[in-house]
Amino acid sequence: MQSLKGIFSFLASCIRYINTYFKTFVFLFIVLLILMPSNKSNLNPANLIRLDLKGAIIDSSVLVENIYKAKNDNNIKGVLLVIDSPGGTFGPSMEIALAIEELSKVKKVVAYTNGTMASGSYLGGVSANKILANPASFIGSIGVIMQGADISELANKIGIKEQSIQAGTFKSAGTITRPWKDEEKAYLQDLINQSYELFTDFVANKRKLNKENKQIWADARVFLASRAKELGLIDDLTSYEMAKKQLQDLANVVNPIWQEESKFEKFLNKISEQGVSLFSDFIFKTLINSNREVVF
């Protein structure tokens, strides 16, 4: 009888202990599962990697860092850059373009769009060794725009007056508090023209296109993938799986091992993907309507 009582007492203690620390055990188990390295990846290092260029291009730092990591990884032989982006701001788009340009000199790079490869995102991927597209993709929009509102009438109605002190004739060029002066418009137009020339020169050089005909392929029109191929903006129409296969062949990889995100990265991306997408789209729309921002 005493022994039974001892057994039940022991079981009760175990149940109380589990009940008290159950959530802690579950949490630690999940953390261990997320952080636990894969033995397969250690024995067989990846030789191919996928990088994504998605959403509005506002900050290119993470993607550019990953591009250079792939460039410096001796095991990586090829990079698949998957693009679905409407474009973005000038600087970050060019930063991606220059990073891909450097990468494509030492590794094989295939750019594949499964939706939109336009403006800044086209610039970003144009240095790839090959550009492939889903047949229903939109390609192009090679142009530059700067927009700004004029809220002077609204400000007058509600009694708001501008006051500022500046040094430099064009310091307030592009302001939203008054109509732009003719000399400011001329200055900003020249800035846009220079940006457009930089954009078209870069594309023409990478795609071996005739700049004399740039009004055909670089007048900010968006083309369906088949027309983009005819114009020389992309190389071929295909599917995602075939794009992977073409990269494998281009990189001469016989036994393809694709680098996967860590479980921790997958976990973070899963919970943040939707929020980041909504935030970047909001910022992109705001920038388009802000003053003095060059947008592709």
Name of the CATH homologous superfamily: 2-enoyl-CoA Hydratase, Chain A, domain 1
State the secondary-structure class.
Answer: alpha/beta
Number of strands: 8
Shape-level CATH architecture:
Alpha-Beta Complex
**CATH fold call:** 2-enoyl-CoA Hydratase, Chain A, domain 1
Mean pLDDT: 82
Helix fraction, binned, reads 40-55%
N-to-C series of helices and strands = HHEHEHEHEEHHHEHEHEH
- Count of all domains: 1
Give the helix tally. Answer: 11
Which residues sit in consecutive blocks of at least 5 with pLDDT less than 50?
A: 272-277, 287-292
Radius of gyration equals 27 Å
Distance between the termini: 83 Å
CATH class: Alpha Beta
Which percent range describes the beta-strand content?
5-15%
> How is the main sheet built?
8 strands, mixed
Sum up the overall morphology in one term: flat
